[in-house]
Amino acid sequence: MAQDFTATFTRVDAPHAAAQGGVRCGAWLVSLEAGDATVVTRPGSELRAVIKGCVYGAGPDALLDAYERHGPDFPRHLEGNYAALLLDGRAGRILAITDRVGSRALYAAHDGLHAALSTRADWAPLRKRPLSLAGVSSMLIKGNLIGGLTLHEGVTSLRRACVHELAVDTFRAHDYWPLTFTPDAGRSEADLEAEFVHLLRAAVTRRLAASGDRPYLSLSGGYDSRALLSLMSAPGRAVRTVSYTLSTLTPGSDAPIAQRLAAQYGAQHTALTAYRGRVLDNVQQNVSWSGGAAPLCDEADAWAEFAALNPSDVFVGDHAFDFNSHPLGGRADQLLRQKVPPSYELLGWLRGSLSSDTFGALESQWHATLDGVLAHSGAAPGQTFDGYELEMALMLDVNVAHSLLPWRDRFAGHTAQVHTPYLDGALLDFTLGLPLPLLARKALFRRALRRLDPQLMQVPLARSLGYVADWKLELIAQRDDIWDSVQATPSPLDDLISPDVIQTLLLNLAPTPRGTQWRGNLRQTLGRLRRTPLGLRVLGPAPIRKTVDAATFLRRVLVLRELTAARLPVPTTPVRLPEPA
What we know:
Distance between the termini: 26 Å
Strand content: 5-15%
Helix content: 25-40%
Mean pLDDT: 88
Radius of gyration: 24 Å
Structural class: alpha+beta
Shape: globular
Strand order of the largest sheet: 2-3-1-9-8-10
Largest sheet: 6 strands, antiparallel
Number of helices: 19
Number of strands: 17
């Protein structure tokens, strides 16, 4: 179901290009591997497209229809959850397209005479390139890659909401959906609620119409997924739901609350085991499925179990409705709102373990990455984005496009088609036109949900996730096996973070002292309070952690080592991309 595709491009004037073969398109010879992706051709023309994901409504042919009718802005007229490559032989144009929110990532590299494009970050021609210090820095401090970074030099993740045209020296991006808030204060809140409900229903209906015969809903105990459960439930429609749990069930956590919600709406429910007790298995699952494109998945074992259910589709409740109560002006405040550390001091405790040059380089790369992210999102010097505009841009660019959706694509999307109804284009356009107070704390969204279904809150909210393992204790219990694995598998990452550093961190891990568990209980209590409008208003959003703890850092390092291991030594200069066969 992954539907991954790859393509290599060689300039026709490159040495030995004629001997390489491939389909000519303008100045390029194209070699395409479509895999399980959808290939669409237009009879009587030289148009061809390969699509990963769904174009809703008229199906994949709609992409070529929109291109012929609307020109460069054609994706603006599509609704979908996709990434695509379009070849226009007559015009000699090669276009790589991302949807509005970047549901499906595209990874690209270009060295002038050769270029490459893939839906997988770990495609062999891309990962033969040198390790990116900026990418490693982002993974260590944030836990995922932001700002278009990948783990390899010269390889970028293409921007969301863009048509990227292959040019002589780069993939040139044309933004077809710029963010512009146009609040309309002339409509009543009742009218806005009614329209919101209508748009929610239409978004779910579109995706259900494109679904196979075994769709599932990833169901938690919060607001968002239960609203999808209500929207998907209708007479005669079989709804299946899944939640995630550990072997010991935590009362009031997501799994038992999801079970009660499923019973309320007559859905068939399955609780999946999030973690089966092997740290190294969790590492390997993250490596093989994410390929370095997504944050760590705590419940990786659950997604492997999910595959055995033979799902056709999976619906998830990711959204872009949750704004701060007051517009955030400062760069640091905006980054903290998106859980982005504005300073590398969250890893300050590493200074004594790494060389000063290494730590300084990682720190410098992180701050350069933040400057680039902020500049692209509208916070460059001299730009005057409104606080809410910047918050929306960062929400989409940092959390949605580079954290949530790659994670959905690589794990849920490994075995089923992923649908994100709340990220529907019509809903996003509607959000950009709302009066700003109705965006704060999902105010209008919550009202619309109550209007949609007065029984929605009959089952209380979950008090905790209940499926995240105590990774510190797991690392302590299995540190001998982990250290054996580190010794047996050298990695280019060792030049930055030596195995000795890993060994020291493993040996220094200690269980949380008795008598201090109250701190964790207090954090859980505050977290529950922040789930309520009053609690959020009084306490504010959850603060970012003051440090990346050693257990989290070790898990990230273990995954990074595996991602970069088992291949030829990393060269000191960039490798020219392979020519198409």
